[in-house]
Amino acid sequence: MLTSGGFPRRLEALGWKQTVRARGELGGDEPAVAIVGARAATAIGMSRAHAIAKHLASRGVRIVSGGALGIDGAAHRGALTGGGPTTVVLGSGLDVPYPVRHRPLFAEILARGGALVSLVADDAQPRPGMFVGRNPLIAALADAVLVIEADVHSGSLSTARAARTQGRVLAAWPGSRGCDRLLATGAGVLESELDAELAARGQLRQREVAPLDPVATQVRAALLAGCTSVDAIVLHTGLAVRAVLRALPLIESSFPARKQ
User: Fold this and answer.
1) Can you give the C-alpha Rg of the chain in angstroms?
2) Of 34, 88, 220, 229, which residue has the fewest beta carbons closer than 10 angstroms?
3) Model-wide pTM > 0.90
């Protein structure tokens, strides 16, 4: 268990108040990058997460993720393959790490100098709200958050929102609806291992975007303000539902489609 005096530097700088329970080695001041994304990820998305994590870990960057199936698990495995430590931010207690399928992976992470951390009691069973609740800690333990693949309702977008609130670097890989939404609202472009290295150093590559019409501009502003559903955008802008639905693809398609 970490008291406020034992918090990692990044948490202390944020004025973090919640108790953080930890098992293993959280590391010191080495660079750290969070890699997150969908549980129901594509094989391509998981391959990208693994490759980026491996590349960064081989260059001394600690990889942080949520331990879930899909992108998270691929990122943790990539970090181990790259010879670096990785931190798992659990949505359950340290004594009941979830998902069960990843318990051998979690044991290997601890054995190889990584850490498991949690915001709940050690014996707390996983419940849905815990996973969203732990996402700000994922962002807080990293210098940058990279979203590899996500739908518009993905929990990874809550990690992205936390990254923005905390002043973390945020980048996304084009091609999935959630990532394209992040790109449309200012996230940096992630398309290579070099982009990931730049993000780890606090640098982002932005894509030039064609000018939007007035309606799409209002919708984009609503997204930047935190609206996450069509109803919320309609309420925020006063636009008709049909107008919002027409504008959303324009915003997302302003980033050219990438090869899958």
Assistant:
1) 18
2) 229
3) no
